[in-house]
Amino acid sequence: MTIVRRWGLTGWALLAVVLLVVPMLTHPALRADVLGDSIVLFLVAWSPMLVGVVMAWAMVRGFGAREQLDRRVSQAMDGHPINRELVWLALFLVCFVLSMALLSLLFRVYGAQIGADLAMSASLVSRLLFLFTLPLLVMDRSGITVDGKGTAMPAIALKVAEAWRWLGLVPVAIALSLVGYLIIPHGGVPALSFPLFGFVLAFAVIAVCEEIFFRGMMQTRLEILMGRWGGIVATSVVFAVTYAVIQPYDAVSQLPGEDLVYNTGLAVLTYAAASLFYGYLWACFRNTWLQVGMRIGMFVMIMPPDLDLRVG
What we know:
Elements: H1 2-26, H2 28-35, H3 39-63, H4 66-77, H5 82-109, H6 116-138, H7 152-158, H8 169-187, H9 194-226, H10 228-246, H11 260-285, H12 288-302
Helix pairs in contact: 1-10, 1-11, 3-8, 3-11, 5-6, 5-9, 6-9, 8-12, 9-10, 9-11, 9-12, 10-11, 11-12
């Protein structure tokens, strides 16, 4: 355990570097994008998230009781077979990717015209099954529901009663304001409509599923093994690679290409950067609704104004 905690952050950080450097060295198009005009994209991804992390740190240092909250999390996780549960989480993640690929293949085989609504539905169903329902059955209720411990972690994450744990709305609001300032003048935002409401509602469910899975389940367990920042970095790498792999099949992914190497490098620069902020919010406040609100705001601002979501 000591070795894992000591080297976990270093190992996952090195993996992130490799996942960025190798695509940069082997893919000229990625180099051109990163070093060319698309640098604005990375400023959008990085600077608001960095400001958000600093503001979250200031909020929790000035007004929070994080040590007490950490003790509650530790007590909630007491008795959980952490390593075995992480294996289960990895299995569910693989099943999620396979489900997305299989649904996409079925659409193509039967010649269906995949509209944005159908593609969003496929994304929603896969996430509800493999990132929410099955993990909840195995993780937070993993054979210890007799004494009530199985419901302790969901209660911490979703039933937020302490006022200071809502102070995370401040860094979220500031980060979203900066993103809006950088991106809206170039792309605009979609007009209010029933389709927009439907897409936002569907994405809200997707965000809840993913934040419970990646932050509430995966990061929490990885933090126990590798420390706070080890868990944040490891989860961010997994989060980014997942989006790179499912990009051809997913209506939600905003990566532009079909090449896995290109998308892996780009995902590290964008999704991993955003995930560091989501992960730090979770580590500070243990309030799933903060990450969900941030992600819904980001989704609305990067959605094409004509709602023409690209699907595979």
